[in-house]
Design goal:
CATH architecture of the largest domain in chain B: 3-Layer(bba) Sandwich
Strand content of chain B: 25-35%
Number of strands of chain A: 22
Structural class of chain B: alpha+beta
Helix content of chain A: 25-40%
Largest sheet of chain B: 8 strands, mixed
Radius of gyration of chain A: 22 Å
Radius of gyration of chain B: 21 Å
Structural class of chain A: alpha/beta
Oligomer: heterodimer
Number of helices of chain A: 17
Helix content of chain B: 25-40%
Distance between the termini of chain B: 50 Å
Bound molecules: flavin-adenine dinucleotide
Number of domains of chain B: 2
Number of strands of chain B: 20
Shape of chain A: globular
Strand content of chain A: 15-25%
Largest sheet of chain A: 7 strands, mixed
CATH class of the largest domain in chain B: Alpha Beta
Chain lengths: 458, 392
């Protein structure tokens, strides 16, 4: 096993990680940036340095923006390691990763977790059928391989990423059969109190409105307030059924793309046993940090969507704030200098986050799509339904960790990544307590896949 | 705070692991009113997260009678609890990987036979290959125990919990015992949820029991360790019995769902205050190597999860079971040194007999809490530190 000591390890080369690593290198720190992908960019800027110009154009100007971050990174002294899957981080700052089948361990003075977001589960009847995919997974195929469905698709759910994918698909010539939107008129009403702040973030808002307009003007059937969503099909998806405006609907389709927002990827912060809180607006857990992104685990910081969903621009700013926090901690700058340099960043961050409350209120996922009926599969790896989970609660199961023991829920290959939030919310509702009280799965390594042979160092 | 009647019992058990729950069950079966206090939730620690090995093979000779009695109870679990805890009598096989290993196995069998125990049987290379066809050809033989096996830990604990509750045992989870004291003839236990009292107190608090014994003025040389395990993704069935090794740390079993659980008293790191065991990556590497040596075809098998549980180790690698030597109406059962899951049913039953004043042929003398004081006059080196004892 290869082991060495370094000053700072950054995990994740998305907006947050790239910006943080570059900034720290500029402050004279020795930085290693690890990312499992083959090139920097993270989710939003996935493959940015590799994508042919035509694909960049197709994906839009926001995507191209990532190029600036990637170029700054490339011309910095950061040691960027691609294809590096981090499978363990300890409270003592030991970072273990796998690269081309070999194990490496770095002992760092400080660690920055910039592992971004993951899609919220969307457990409805039939969501596990072949032909049903998350919009995010579909977008990954588009970004990294230029792949798009050959079948007409139905987009289901809510949130900016869903509309963005629709827009990108339009440009890629994919047929969109319908946009089945779960957003209801009263969601606009609920979100309106944040509208003023949102208007001050006009560029964001305008972009969103343009996306929607272009979808509409393309003549795509757009249903709003869709409820009782279900995918029909025996072996594979055949149709989507739902009700909208009180009318039952059925759309034949073999490709359903689901999305209802993203949530922080808290695998590492949970495995580190950092304190987390339940975010009542975003309906997910987020790690508790100080103003620099430091966890209650000393010298371990979080930046970007992994600390709470804020979007790519906020992530890049948070990355720089964490960079300053770490630089001050490692004494490469003083605290006065840190605070000076942080001032403009905080102004920028505030501006970047202005739209959030509006988006969170407008696109809050519906309870029926988060806390499903008894017959709906919750844990797809071990095939545990919502009803079974409720029966565990009746037997004394008080939280996700016990749910594993009662019925292997969350013990399969995904280790609860796909069902974690659903399980928390189902148990909370069944017990009549808050999600915060129910808590989350205890996360253990390996965070990324590793084989016995690799572990053995063969 | 006033003690309402539900805070009073005949016996108060501290710790809802397999030992506390099985003791509670056997007491309740005899009509005793039992209350269990559990700091977190039942089975949260060693009893719910262990490797599930139901193993008499390789036991310290002092433990064998109790372990054999426990094994009989495992085979009857379905009948006793209405649930078998996932117990599979798959047999256990300790592999010898060299001539020296095989010689060691032979000596062990000789020693056991001289003591009148015949549950362990020496097997040759061919017998091993017949039992586990995919094992590496360097294996030279081993020791076989037919009636051993494995169970599913949390399922077992839950089965004990539900059976105990069905017989009237009250269980208070999230209720850590803080101070224990005997006033007059009653034990009083303070918890954040108020006081509990009972005539008899049983301490089955696993890695935390030593702290409670110290409160009574009976300190025991016991220390906690974080023991690690890993579980793999599913793989087609290739190995029926539970495997151990002779000169390497190994505990290895394939569950019926295809996953393989790998351990063998692998000590990780421990954050005792946080009640958390942590994984030590280098030690895992050597464990993975043992497995890929024995089963080269598993090299590409993915590790799904690695974890560590908190277990109590005593200075002589034997548990503390029996009555306090300092206070009346106080019993202990803790310090199982990495192999107390198998002992759960038998020890619970035996401890209940002790408390009820019933006779048993199984002596608890080797497990007496004051044995360490007596041993103080033993020659140096008579006891090894638990973590250095290579155990099958
Ligand atoms: C599927 C998906 C698609 C998205 N698409 C868009 C979009 O098109 N437009 C948009 O505005 N927003 C999009 N978002 C939201 C967007 O991810 C964030 O706003 C933004 O990317 C946050 O940046 P970040 O730096 O926090 O994280 P990310 O950009 O997500 O970067 C995290 C990086 O960490 C790496 N990583 C994670 N775990 C490990 C590990 N264990 N070992 C090594 N590397 C690891 C990942 O490979 C990734 O490169 C998407 C989100 C998701 C989940
Ligand atoms: C990783 C691992 C693998 C193992 N593999 C095997 C195996 O294959 N076969 C085998 O036979 N054995 C195995 N063991 C050992 C076995 O799990 C333990 O010996 C056995 O479970 C101990 O049971 P217990 O009830 O004494 O302790 P525990 O299960 O630890 O239960 C003690 C309980 O007391 C509670 N408690 C503590 N303090 C207080 C307090 N003050 N008030 C109230 N409650 C309190 C705790 O929360 C805990 O739930 C393994 C152990 C580990 C950790």
């Amino acid at each position: 096993m290869n082991r060495e000591s370094v000053e700072v390890v950054v995990i994740g080369a998305g907006a947050a990680g790239m910006a943080a690593a570059t900034r720290m290198a500029g402050l004279g720190l020795q930085v290693v940036l690890l990312d499992e992908q083959g090139s920097p960019g993270g989710q939003i800027y996935r493959g940015i340095t590799l994508a042919p110009l035509s694909r960049r154009d197709l994906l839009g100007p926001d995507y191209a923006h990532g190029n600036q971050l990637a170029q700054a990174l490339a011309s910095s002294s950061v040691r960027y390691e691609k294809g590096a899957s981090v499978w363990q981080v300890t409270r003592e700052h030991q970072v273990s990763y796998l690269r081309e089948g070999r194990l490496y361990t770095l002992d760092a003075k400080a660690v920055l977790l910039a592992t971004g977001a993951m899609e919220r589960p969307f457990p409805i009847t039939g969501w596990t059928l072949p032909g049903v995919m998350s919009a995010g997974a579909a977008q990954i195929l588009l970004k990294s391989a230029g792949l798009a469905p050959s079948e007409p698709v139905v987009l289901v759910g809510c949130g900016p990423l869903l509309y963005l994918l629709g827009w990108q698909y339009l440009r890629a010539g994919v047929t969109i059969k319908a946009l089945v939107d779960t957003t209801r008129p009263e969601d606009y009403w609920r979100a309106r109190r944040h509208l003023f702040a949102a208007l001050r973030a006009w560029p964001y808002l305008r972009k969103g409105l343009e996306l929607m307009r272009s979808l509409r003007s393309a003549g795509i059937a757009h249903y709003t307030g869709a409820e009782q969503l279900a995918v029909e099909g025996g072996e594979a998806a055949q149709a989507l059924t739902f009700s909208a405006s009180g009318k039952a609907q059925r759309i034949d389709t073999r490709c359903v793309l689901l999305h209802q927002g993203v949530v922080p990827n808290i695998q590492f912060s949970q495995a580190l046993r950092a304190r987390h809180e339940w975010d009542l607006d975003q309906l997910c857990f987020r790690p508790v940090t100080d103003a620099w992104g430091e966890l209650d685990v000393p010298d371990v910081f979080v930046a970007g969507d992994g600390a709470g969903i804020g979007g790519a621009q906020a992530a890049a700013v948070q990355g720089q704030l964490a960079a300053l926090g770490i630089a001050a901690r490692l004494k490469s700058i003083g605290t006065a200098e840190r605070d000076d340099q942080a001032r403009p960043l905080r102004v920028q961050l505030e501006a970047n986050l202005r739209i959030r409350p509006f988006l969170d209120a407008l696109y809050q996922p519906k309870e029926q799509n988060r806390i499903p009926a008894d017959e709906v599969m919750v844990c797809r790896c071990e095939e545990v339904t919502a009803g079974e989970l409720r029966s565990f609660v009746a037997l004394g199961c008080a939280g996700p960790n016990q749910a594993k023991s009662f019925g292997r829920c969350g013990m399969g290959p995904c280790q609860g990544r796909m069902c974690g939030l659903t399980v928390t919310e189902i148990i909370a509702k069944a017990r009549g307590v808050s999600a915060a009280e129910v808590g989350y799965y205890r996360i253990r390594p390996p965070i990324k896949p590793i084989t016995l042979g690799e572990l053995a160092g063969e | 705070m006033s003690e309402s009647s539900n805070r009073q019992a005949d016996v108060l058990v501290i710790g809802g692991g397999i030992h506390g729950l099985s003791t509670a069950l056997y007491l309740a079966q005899a009509g005793v009113k039992v209350t269990v206090l559990e700091a977190e939730y039942c089975g949260r620690h060693a009893s719910g997260v262990n490797a599930g090995g139901v193993r008499t093979l390789g036991r310290h000779v002092a433990e064998i009678p109790l372990a054999l009695s426990s094994r009989d109870l495992w085979h009857e679990l379905k009948h006793t609890l209405g649930d078998d805890g996932g117990f599979v009598p798959s047999g256990q096989l300790k592999l010898a990987e060299s001539q020296a290993d095989l010689e060691e196995c032979r000596l062990r069998i000789e020693q056991l036979q001289a003591l009148g125990f015949c549950h362990e049987v020496l097997v040759d290379q061919q017998q091993v290959f017949d039992t586990v066809p995919t094992v590496s050809r360097h294996v030279t033989g081993g020791i076989w125990v037919k009636d051993d096996g494995y169970a599913v830990p949390f399922k077992t604990v839950t089965a004990f919990r539900l059976a105990a509750q069905k017989r009237g045992v009250r269980i208070h989870e999230n209720t850590p015992a803080q101070r224990i004291e005997q006033t007059g003839t009653r034990w009083r236990v303070s918890t954040p949820a108020g006081h509990f009292s009972a005539e008899h107190l049983v301490v089955t608090a696993g890695a935390w029991a030593g702290g409670l014994a110290a409160q009574i003025g009976e300190p025991v040389p016991v220390h906690p360790e974080g023991l690690m395990l890993m579980v793999t993704h599913r793989v087609a069935p290739f190995c029926v019995p539970v495997l151990g090794a002779t000169s390497r740390a190994l505990s290895f079993k394939q569950f019926s769902n295809g996953t393989v659980v790998i351990g063998g008293k692998l000590v990780g790191s421990l954050d005792f205050l946080a009640r958390h065991g942590e994984v030590e990556m280098e030690r895992l590497g050597s464990s993975a190597r043992t497995v890929t040596d024995l089963f080269p075809h598993l090299r590409h098998l993915g590790v799904n999860r690695v974890w560590a549980g908190v277990e109590a180790f005593t200075a002589d690698d034997l548990p503390v079971i029996g009555a306090s030597r300092k206070a009346s109406n106080l019993s202990y059962s803790f310090g199982f040194c990495g192999s107390g899951f198998q002992m759960g049913p038998g020890t619970g039953k035996r401890l209940a007999q002790l408390i009820l004043g019933e006779h048993s042929d199984i002596s608890l003398e080797p497990f007496a809490i004051d044995r360490f004081n007596r041993a103080a006059s033993a020659p140096p080196g008579a006891f090894q530190s638990a973590s250095t004892i290579a155990h099958p």
